[in-house]
Design brief:
The chain is an alpha+beta fold. The protein contains nine helices and 16 strands. The longest helix has 16 residues. It starts with a strand and ends with a helix.
């Protein structure tokens, strides 16, 4: 296969896929920022440049594997999603599909889809004014988690349980023209579960962080392999289906009463911590899925 790796040429995941491929496939890194599209005589072409500046038609590849979704302006993000949709329409396999990536990078859209699928999510309020956010702050027992609509790996996520600080933060976000995304803080023991799906195969890890309420491994959490209950596995599978992803990570948190809530569905999931904790070659799983 010829695989266009949409991500950094210095990415650990690129090296891991190249290792797992063992020369069987050509894996070429290309940057999102280099994507261009040419439309002429009913033909739509999408191309990008590689690390040495060569222009490569992306519709010449068998698979476009999306391994990042970098920040950008609204116009840039929309254009990137449009070009992925154009590639998919031309017959190129895009993983994950553009609609799944579009849903997963937008926390509000993800939460809405999960809720409509009958899946448990933290109580959430999304608004555009400080007054609306303060009403939710009171409704959520003055303990909330503020998240950027776009973003991952715990970046930009803040817990606020002080009224004066909340008002200052919400006013600042309103002045910046931001959408204010608030969720109730779910009390927990500093741990959660990540279930990684690759097609119909899955792996699960238990993540615990004694130093931070956020359980991202990038923030110091320790991960170990675990066997989720059938209930948890069913929730994770349904969450992936609700977003429409093929390769995804689902984060689940246990409430004090023992019930589970779904925090996130990541359509560009990392697998470094999962591979280390389980001893499974996830990169090989990804390539096998793409081959099928």
């Amino acid at each position: 296969m010829r695989i266009a790796f949409l991500g950094s040429s210095t990415s650990w995941y690129l090296r891991d896929l190249e290792r797992a491929a063992g020369g069987r496939h050509e894996i070429v890194p290309v940057e999102f920022s280099s994507i261009t599209s040419h439309v002429e005589n009913e033909q739509v072409g999408v191309r990008a440049s590689n690390a040495i500046g060569d222009w490569l038609p992306l519709d010449d590849f068998d698979v476009v594997l999306v391994r990042t979704m970098p920040p950008g302006t609204l116009e840039q993000v929309v254009f990137r999603m449009d070009t992925l949709a154009a590639l998919e329409a031309s017959g190129v396999r895009v993983v994950n599909p553009p609609k799944a990536i579009e849903a997963a990078v937008d926390k509000y859209l993800t939460t809405m889809r999960l809720a409509r699928a009958g899946l448990p999510v933290p109580e959430t309020l999304v608004c555009q004014t400080a007054d609306g956010a303060m009403q939710a702050f009171s409704q959520f027992a003055a303990d909330v988690v503020v998240k950027p609509i776009f973003g991952g790996e715990g970046r930009g996520i803040t817990r606020i349980n002080d009224e004066a600080l909340a008002l200052r933060a919400f006013r600042m976000l309103e002045q910046l023209g931001a959408v204010i995304y608030l969720q109730e803080f779910v009390p927990h023991d500093g741990s959660d579960l990540r279930v990684l799906w690759v097609g119909e195969r899955w792996l699960a890890i238990h993540r615990r962080n004694p130093l931070d309420w956020r359980t991202n491994v990038s923030r110091g959490a320790v991960a170990e392999r675990c066997e989720p209950t059938p209930e948890v596995l069913d929730l994770a599978r349904r969450a992936v289906d609700a977003v429409g992803a093929q390769i995804a990570g689902v984060d689940l948190l246990a409430r004090p009463d023992g019930s589970w809530t779904i925090l996130e569905v990541n359509a560009v999931p990392g697998w470094q911590a999962t591979s280390r904790a389980t001893g499974i070659d996830v990169a090989a799983w990804v390539l096998e899925y793409l081959e099928r």
